[in-house]
Task: inverse folding
């Protein structure tokens, strides 16, 4: 017997609705849970005081600095490398075994578990190059981690720029680089920014890599060679070693809302940029 | 052949392949300075390919192969040592689809002149002159800094023409410039071409035979990459020498 199409339609619709609702519910539960447990302890002094007594009391100032420092370094290194690679792959090469190899390599890099990447960073930067547990080692290893994301999203964004723009620029006597710098990259900027923001999010939240490479010193890092404990690592240590669950929650809340706020800021900025010429 | 007006462009025994596909087959023709030269023929006849050779846009096509020679005045177009950027500034191209860049109207116009080294203070005058020549000045003079993408299709195409004029080329190639436009916009573009004739050499590709008959001085008919016939437009349309030309313009194929 065949179901009335109107009935099956209604059944499927409510099923899909339920699945979507459930997904949304999980997200909401996480956000609400962390907010309720963590936000009450977040205050100006929590953000501006250094941690005391291993983090049992005091604030998270040094971890905020370490997080910003390490993430900024990772993004500053990975963005030119990633965008440059994407430009090379899309604009300067024709599809060949070499481009496929580079792309495959980037995909593989994306598939490496972060804990293994951490070990690699430990061996290369901490030991071999002698940077020690430091902001530098952590930032560079994170850069390697987010590189595939930036390459991938930049490539997609550059490919999405209409081919006619390149033809027009070429027939207007622009060189390939002038075309890329003046037309292609500005048009691809929203997509590239999305990739960079995604990478910022990944870097802010990364723990395993940094346990191996940046260490867990609670001092505020002031140079590239200082060890630094990021918010994510701080949260992990507070929770894992049972030092202070309430402070762990508060740290998590700050971390979560920083990521949310940064994404929101980037989104509105892009909207404003894009509205100018569409 | 009558040599009184000098040849601006000369093409000799030109053949072109996309990979294994032959698009032009030993085409030879010459185009005089200050004429509107029409290229007509059905789809895949090689019209657009010929244009792409004349400003070396064919360099962008992978697996292209070219034989034969072509000159712009005394410059050998296909020679490897030819400066393609300089060539493209002398031979402007307007594509069939209106393709404004995602910038303001003004930026579209001054991008090429600025990069070609025109002094900054001359640029507003360059933009205005190009817009006037393309018959667009009155419609856009109050919103030069609005996005070019907000113009109508016909206005966008005239902007593209103006953008090409702003480079101050010697030759303008038009690849079916009115294929997506309404009759009024089409008429405006054709009218503009008449006015530009005194200063430029114009090659108009169209698969609209009526447009070729209306707007051009001389016409070539291409079929499957071969040059079938070339002559004064009035002659080609009234007493074609080749049966295939007759068939094409009277709509029996293509």
Result:
């Amino acid at each position: 017997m065949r179901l009335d199409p109107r009935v099956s339609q209604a059944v499927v619709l409510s099923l899909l609705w339920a699945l979507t609702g459930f997904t949304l519910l999980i997200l909401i539960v996480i956000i609400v849970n962390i907010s309720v447990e963590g936000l009450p302890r977040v205050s100006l002094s929590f953000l501006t005081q250094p941690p005391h007594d291993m983090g049992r009391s005091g604030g998270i100032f040094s971890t905020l600095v370490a997080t910003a420092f390490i993430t900024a370094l990772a993004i500053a290194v990975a963005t030119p490398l990633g965008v440059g690679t994407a430009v090379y792959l899309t604009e300067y090469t024709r599809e060949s075994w070499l481009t496929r190899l580079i792309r495959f390599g980037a995909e593989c890099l994306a598939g490496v578990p972060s804990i293994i990447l951490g070990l690699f960073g430990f061996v290369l930067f901490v030991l071999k190059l002698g940077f020690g547990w430091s902001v530098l080692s952590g930032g560079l290893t994170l850069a390697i981690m987010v590189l595939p994301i930036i390459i991938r999203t930049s490539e997609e964004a550059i490919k999405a720029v209409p081919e006619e723009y390149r033809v027009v620029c070429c027939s207007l006597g622009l060189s390939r680089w002038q075309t890329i710098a003046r037309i292609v990259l500005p048009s691809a900027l929203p997509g590239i920014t999305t990739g960079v923001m995604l990478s910022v999010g990944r870097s802010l939240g990364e723990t395993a890599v940094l346990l191996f490479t940046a260490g867990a010193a609670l001092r505020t890092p002031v140079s590239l060679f200082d060890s630094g404990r990021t918010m994510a690592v701080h949260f992990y240590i507070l929770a894992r070693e049972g030092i202070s669950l309430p402070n762990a929650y508060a740290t998590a809340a700050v971390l979560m809302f920083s990521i949310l706020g940064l994404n929101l800021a980037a989104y509105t900025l892009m909207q404003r940029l894009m509205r100018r010429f569409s | 052949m009558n040599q009184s007006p000098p040849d601006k462009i000369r093409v000799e025994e030109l053949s072109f392949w996309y990979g294994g596909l032959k698009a032009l087959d030993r085409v030879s023709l010459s185009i005089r300075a200050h004429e509107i030269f029409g290229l007509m023929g059905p789809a895949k006849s090689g019209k657009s390919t010929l244009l792409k050779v004349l400003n070396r846009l064919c360099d962008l096509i992978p697996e292209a192969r070219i034989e034969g020679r072509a000159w712009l005045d005394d410059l050998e177009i296909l020679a490897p040592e030819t400066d393609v950027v300089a060539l493209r500034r002398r031979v402007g191209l307007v594509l069939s689809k209106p393709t404004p860049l995602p910038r303001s109207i003004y930026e579209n116009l001054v991008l090429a002149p600025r990069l070609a080294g025109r002094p900054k203070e001359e640029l507003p005058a360059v933009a205005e002159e190009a817009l006037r020549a393309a018959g667009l000045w009155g419609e856009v003079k109050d919103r030069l800094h609005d996005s070019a993408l907000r113009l109508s299709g016909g206005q966008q195409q005239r902007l593209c023409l103006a953008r090409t004029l702003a480079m101050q080329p010697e030759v303008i190639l038009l690849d079916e410039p009115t294929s997506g436009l309404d009759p009024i916009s089409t008429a405006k573009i054709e009218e503009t071409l008449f006015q530009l004739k005194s200063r430029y050499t114009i090659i108009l590709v169209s698969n609209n035979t009526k447009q070729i008959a209306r707007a051009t001085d001389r016409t070539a008919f291409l079929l499957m990459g071969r040059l079938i016939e070339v002559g004064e437009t009035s002659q080609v349309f009234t007493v074609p020498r080749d049966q295939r030309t007759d068939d094409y313009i009277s709509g029996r194929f293509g």
Remarks:
- The first strand of chain B starts at residue 7 and ends at 18.
- Chain B touches chain A at residues 55, 57, 60, 62, 85-86, 88-89, 92-93, 95, 97, 99, 101-104, 111-112, 115-116, 147, 149, 160, 163-164, 167 (CB under 8 Å).
- The CA atoms of residues 15 and 67 of chain B lie 5 Å apart.
